[in-house]
Amino acid sequence: MAPGSMTRRGFLSHTATAAALAACTPLSNKVFAAEPPQRTGRPYMKLSLAAYSFNKLLPKNWTKDTVKDAKLTLDGFIDYCASLDLAGTELTSYYFPKEVTHEYLTSIKERAFRLGLDISGTAIGNDFCVATDEKRQQQIELCRSWIDHAAFMGAPVIRIFAGNIPKGDSEEAARERCISAINECLDHAAKQGVVLALENHGGITATPAQLLAIVKGVKESPWFGVNYDSGNFRTDDPYADLEQIAPYAVNAQVKVSIFTKGQKQVGDLKRMVDILKAANYRGYLVLEYEEADPYGEIPGYIDQLRRMIG
After folding, report:
1. Checking DSSP bridges between strand 195-199 and strand 224-229, what pairing results, if any?
2. CATH number assigned to the domain covering 43-309
3. pTM of this prediction?
4. What is the C-alpha separation between 47 and 268, in angstroms, rounded?
5. Tell me: the pLDDT tens digits for 101-127?
6. What's the 3-state SS for 198-243?
7. How far apart are CA 142 and CA 153, in angstroms?
8. Which of 10, 148, 155, 272 is the most exposed place for a label (fewest CB within 10 A)?
9. How confident is the model over 71-95, as pLDDT tens digits?
10. Residue 298 near residue 86 (C-beta atoms within 8 A)
C-alpha cells in the first residue's frame, strides 16, 4: 500500500486485527521485562569498583560511635577509586550509616562528583522469598527506599537479590513471591528512573534456568534486567552459564575467582570480559574483589581489565 493510501475504515480494521492478534498471543511469545536489550554500536565498558571489595574494612550500618575506629569509610573508598583513575564507584548500601540522611547522601554525591566519578550503582541485601506478609513488605520498603537514595545520588542501577527458599516451602511458591515483589518495586523504580538488576546469587538464582524463570515472569519494563556476576555460579561449566545470562545484563561484575563444580579456581578474566563483548554489552564493568589483599592486588587487576576492555 502506498504511503497515505490507507482509509480511516482500513486503519480501524487494521488496528482491530492487530489488537485481536495481540490478545491471542501465547504468554510464552510476549515480550518480558528483560528481553535482551537492543544495543547499537560496538561493545563498550567503563570500569568501576564495588565497595564490597573492602568488606572486611568498611563498617556496616554504622553510627557516629561505631565508626570512630573504622579503618575505612565510604569517603575513603571513593578517594581510593579516584586514585585508580576509575570512571565509577559502586557504593554498596551495607556501608552507609544506620540512618541514611539527606545530608549524608548529599556529601557522598558531592565527593564523587568533585573527584570525577560516577556513582555507577548500589546494592541491597534483600530477600524477596520471605514467607510472611510483614517480612515481605519490609523487603519491598527496603528496596523502595534505596531506589530513592540511588535516584538522588544519580546511581542508575541497584543490584537486587531473589533470596532463598524458606524451610518447608516450595521453590515455585518462593519464585512467585519474588516475582510479585520485583513487580511492585518496579513501579517505583520506573518513576525514579533507576534500573533493578537481579543478580545470579545462589538460592533460587543458582542456575541460569532459575534466574531466567524469574526474569521471564516479571512484567515488561525497561527498568529491569540482570546483574552478570562472574563468580557466583557453582555449576559444572560456569562460563557456559554466564554466556546464557550475558545478553540480559544491565550491569556487570567480575571476580578474580570462579567456582567449577563447587571448587574455587583462578578465574579467566579475559574470558569473562569476552562473554560480555559477545553479548554486545555496553555499561559498567565492576570489579568485586573478594580475596585477602585488596590494597595489594586491586590495582593490578584494574590494569588488566583496562587493557581487556580497550
Report:
1. parallel
2. 3.20.20.150
3. 0.88
4. 17
5. 999 999 999 999 999 999 999 999 999
6. EECCECCECCHHHHHHHHCCCCCCCCEEEEEECCCCCCCCHHHHHH
7. 17
8. 10
9. 999 999 999 999 999 999 999 999 9
10. no
